[in-house]
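Design job #97: recover the sequence.
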């Protein structure tokens, strides 16, 4: 029975004036830091062999990648499969693949082009040898083998 009633204090509204700035900052950050995958893998993600002496390739635009491993889709068959760009190919298609990659660059850049082979640890050596033979026949002699850094003894397990 007091003369003064209790006044309820209202919680002030959250100020959302800076929200668009934060959203655009996050959007810009993710746009800059995200890389887009150039090809979708049709083979199982290769478990790369380990190496102790690893060197990073300088110009990624001059690298042509050949993936070797088991197919993701069982209808492709068993055994080692070769992926060139976005399709499963045979060893005979390697020559045309390298020629098409060379055509994308001028003569000076063609001299610095590298063929990178990303092969699964359990890939048959004969498949790699066949690919190297095809590359040798068209004078694509700069070959890089992708590997992960680590203990080399893991390669023999």
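Job complete. Output follows.
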């Amino acid at each position: 029975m007091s003369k003064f009633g209790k006044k309820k204090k209202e919680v002030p509204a959250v100020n959302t004036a800076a929200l668009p700035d934060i959203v655009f900052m996050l959007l810009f950050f993710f746009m800059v830091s995200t890389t887009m995958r150039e090809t979708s893998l049709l083979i199982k993600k290769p478990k790369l062999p380990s190496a102790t002496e690893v060197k990073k390739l300088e110009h990624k635009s001059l690298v042509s990648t050949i993936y070797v491993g088991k197919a993701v889709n069982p209808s492709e068959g068993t055994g080692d499969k070769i992926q060139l760009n976005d399709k499963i190919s045979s060893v005979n298609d390697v020559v045309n693949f390298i020629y098409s990659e060379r055509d994308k660059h001028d003569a000076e850049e063609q001299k610095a082009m590298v063929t990178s082979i990303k092969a699964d640890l359990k890939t048959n050596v004969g498949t790699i040898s066949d690919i190297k033979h095809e590359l040798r026949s068209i004078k694509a002699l700069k070959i890089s083998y992708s590997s992960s850094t680590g203990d080399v003894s893991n390669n023999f397990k």
